[in-house]
Amino acid sequence: MSTLPTHRRVFRVTSPSPHTRPTLTLHTEPLPFSLPPTFVLIKTHAISLNYCDADILFGTNPWPTIPHMIPCNDAAGSIISLGSRVTRWHVGDAVLPNVDTANFTGREAGRGWLAANEDGVLADYLLFDESVLVRVPGHLSWGESSVLPCAGLTAWSALKGVKGGEMVSIQGTGGVALVAVKLALERGLRVVLSSSSDGKLAHVREELARILSGW
């Protein structure tokens, strides 16, 4: 039987504020001798980097941040230890954390964002309550699975309501995306705009209206 780790390596933000150039420092931190009853210990196998990670670090994201937080919100790993009252998972299960640990159905009152107002996943071992985890699809690699929490969910949210047989054109961010929207509208396609904040979404709408008015 393998011995469970007693410490983990973790990157934490050490810059004085989110509006200065971010500085990350590698720390070695002790893991709890006994897990909280409903928590699991996860060995990290892959971490995905997103634009929002830099957005948060530079203070241009609307979410509040905690001091010295752990960056990054997308990761996949395997469970290596269980709290005494864990019922949903088993040792060896492949899982990934939900980016919003307080909101699963859209009807909850609270919100929580990994790597912002909660610690993120840039560590070799992670501790999470069993309720915030999702099973990794068996046909995906660790790297492929690690992109699902934020990027994958963003793509899925834009595709909700699409029916079988319908054609979908997907374009990322930037000026090219606005041209793609213009062409889609000309062809009578339904356009779905999504963003991480109301402020960004309003800016996109204004920019799109300006471009369309000149074409």
UniProtKB/TrEMBL annotation:
- TM region positions: none
Q: Which SUPFAM superfamilies does this chain map to?
A: GroES-like (SSF50129), NAD(P)-binding Rossmann-fold domains (SSF51735)
Locate the coiled-coil region(s) and give their ranges. Answer: none
Annotated ranges, domain Alcohol dehydrogenase-like N-terminal: 38-137
Under PANTHER family, the record lists:
OXIDOREDUCTASE (EUROFUNG), PTHR45033
Q: What is this protein called?
A: Chaperonin 10-like protein
| Organism from which the protein derives | Paraphoma chrysanthemicola
